[in-house]
Amino acid sequence: MKLLVLDHFFAQDIESLRKAAGPDVDLHIVDYDLFRSEALRIFPPDVTGPLEVFARPEYADHRRRFETKFGELLEDLFTGRQFDAFVAPSDVFFYLRPAARACHRLGIPFFVAQKETTISELTMTADAERVRAFAPPIADHMTVCSERHRQFQLRAGAVPDRVTVTGQPRFDYYARPEEWPTRNADGRPTVLFFSYLIDAYHPAEGTGRQVWADLHRRTELGLWELARNGWRVLIKPHPQQNFRSERTRIAKEVGELIDRDVFLVRADEDARRLIVTSDVVVGFQSTALLEGMLVGRPVVYTGWDTESSRLAAELIPFPEWADAISVVTRPEALAETVEAALEQDEADERRARREGIVTEYLGPFDGLASCRTLDQIQACVESFEGRRDAATLARRAELAARRPPVRVRRSTRRAFVRLRRAVGEALGR
């Protein structure tokens, strides 16, 4: 089976699929910018904004032109290196909306191995309605991590028998502790904080309102206290935070603690490696907290903000899980809560509670998600193979005999280099 796989910050899942596939499956990686850049040559820049922009009636001609261009790009990729399916991490991206029809002209499926995981209540309601209205599911089949995520896709308009729960391929890593790196051996405990944009997770996200500024600031003050108490503090910025400016700001605040007790890690560093080598995980509304629960790390949730209490019905309900994690209700108690969490025993009842929560939000974590995903792709490929008519077969033969254009060869090389670098970082190479 030969797969064309779109890499849109999807390297960890791709590598998990590649490892499970073995030599019988050929994964050919293409950089998402090949399609995105062509879309931006046709559409006005605002198409990168909310979903409804791409769907505007005045962009109907733009959509027709881009669908033609997308089909040409996909055919160019097919030339010289045929593939049996086009696999992407989502079908909601504006530059992938023509993908299904373009794939069908080649007699292959457009398959989504969904990369998104945790679905908050806000996402389940408001976001599902927006997706249904402006970018409903178009994949021939989609795999998702959990039944909760499946319900989101159904609310967004997916056909029930086209969405399968498999677990998340990249989380197979957590079921293989023999592959984890060794933890720090200098005797100091490590606390890992997943930073975030101060308007994230909020209905006003993107408006510039600094909703969580005070929450974020007080969290950092508690972490600096831990650093002065002998802890190693790791801070992983969100990919959309500016690493350089964040490092400059933090270095100015903590002085000589920077790079000795307080460390800023790159946003693209593998969160899984950081989690399994840390002693306590701290955060707010992050899927990484669930991952920490998955591997038995003490998890501390910063739960004192009044706005988060007001929005409780729309957020991931971490504050309700005080029997499974540590919920901090006073900012001045953060450091002592982290220190106490390190000493807390993992009782069987607490472990079972964690497993139930993680299964609901992240799905099965038995290390076989990649295998199940590949099985679904194989079934979809076989279904399409049996339905190709003579015209489709002739078109495929004609395209296969061509030589791919230079821009396609360059794009695939660029995607391969980027994927290899990301995998190397994930493996500590």
Helices, strands, pairings?
Elements: E1 2-7, H1 11-21, E2 26-31, H2 33-42, H3 51-54, H4 60-78, E3 85-88, H5 99-105, E4 110-113, H6 121-134, E5 141-144, H7 147-155, E6 163-165, E7 190-194, H8 213-228, E8 232-236, H9 243-254, E9 262-264, H10 271-276, E10 280-283, H11 287-294, E11 299-302, H12 306-310, E12 326-328, H13 334-343, H14 348-362, H15 369-385, H16 390-400, H17 406-426
Parallel strand pairs: 1-2, 1-3, 3-4, 4-5, 5-6, 7-8, 7-10, 8-9, 10-11, 11-12
Any overview of this molecule?
The structure is a single chain. This protein has a 6-stranded parallel beta sheet, sandwiched between helices. Strands 9-8-7-10-11-12 form a 6-stranded parallel beta sheet, sandwiched between helices. Helix 11 links the parallel strand 10 (280-283) and strand 11 (299-302). The protein is α/β, with parallel strands linked by helices and 429 residues long. Helices cover 45% and strands 12% of the residues. The model has no long low-confidence stretch (mean pLDDT 91). It folds into 2 domains: 2-173 and 367-426, Rossmann fold; 177-362, Rossmann fold, CATH 3.40.50.
Short description:
This protein is of the alpha/beta class and 429 residues long. It has 17 helices and twelve strands.
Which short descriptors sum up this protein?
six-stranded parallel beta sheet; Rossmann fold; single chain; 12 strands; alpha/beta; 17 helices; 429 residues
